[in-house]
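Fold Annotation — chain and its backbone

Encoding — discrete vocabulary of local shapes
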Amino acid sequence: MIVTTTDIIQGAEIQSYLGIVTAEVVYGTNALRDFFAGIRDIIGGRTGSYEEVFLKGQRHAL
């Protein structure tokens, strides 16, 4: 299945339009992850553990 936000796909025939599709995914985190994310906020940098949770949520929503 191809997921797109455009109304055409070059070289493909559109069989049906689904309209606006939405999804929500909610994930909880744990205290240890929150602690290390707080330290990252102070010293700067990316929080890899949260990025993984967000990517997982995005994949599940799609």
